[in-house]
Structures are given as structure tokens and as C-alpha cells.
């Protein structure tokens, strides 16, 4: 498990309804961070149905969902849960912290 936090962006660069991507500095895992109405959430930037980046899809800032552009699988950005076929497995969720006017995340899996 990585204890090293990865800087994503300045808080002012991630407004409600927006998302940003980053790569974990230790594990090199792609992570997408969402601002949902002032709350921040991070998921692995990979659809669980097929190895494709979620950040290429559409983020619905009102429903807190991300839809994979490849086959239409939709996930809840707050917990990574799949919401419709063809995805039946969730997407890993990562911690987010706000510190020094920045948004930070990390791959906290063992």
C-alpha cells in the first residue's frame, strides 16, 4: 500500500461537476478525481467491464455517475459501484484529501 499522496491539481482547478486525472506516483495506477458538489471522490480510471479509461466518458455532475464511452457501463463516482450492464464489478475507490490548496489522492490498496 502506498503512503505517498499524489498531487492532482489546485482546488481552484477542479470545480463542481468537473473531473481530473492523475497517475499514482508509486503504483502508476491511473486515477480520476471528481468534484461532486464540493465533495471529492477518486476512482481507478479503468472500466471494470473492459480495460478502458473512464475519464474518456461522460461525468454527470448531477447524478454523481460516470459512463464509460466504450460500452455504456455506468458507475457511481461516490463508491465505484456498477449501475448497469455490461459492468457487474465495481471500480476501486481511492481516498482524497485537500491540503495546501491542492487536491491529493493515492492508491491505498494492499
UniProtKB/TrEMBL annotation:
Residues in domain Rieske? 6-105
Keyword annotations for this protein, in alphabetical order, are: 2Fe-2S, Dioxygenase, Iron, Iron-sulfur, Metal-binding, Oxidoreductase
Give the superkingdom in one word: Bacteria
Keyword Cell membrane found: no
* Bilayer-spanning residue ranges: none
One Pfam annotation reads Rieske
Q: Which residues form a coiled coil?
A: none
Please give one Gene Ontology molecular function term for this protein. Answer: dioxygenase activity
PANTHER family to which the protein is assigned, alphabetical: 3-PHENYLPROPIONATE_CINNAMIC ACID DIOXYGENASE FERREDOXIN SUBUNIT (PTHR21496:SF23), FERREDOXIN-RELATED (PTHR21496)
This chain belongs to which protein, by name? 3-phenylpropionate/trans-cinnamate dioxygenase ferredoxin subunit
- Report the source organism: Pseudoxanthomonas sacheonensis
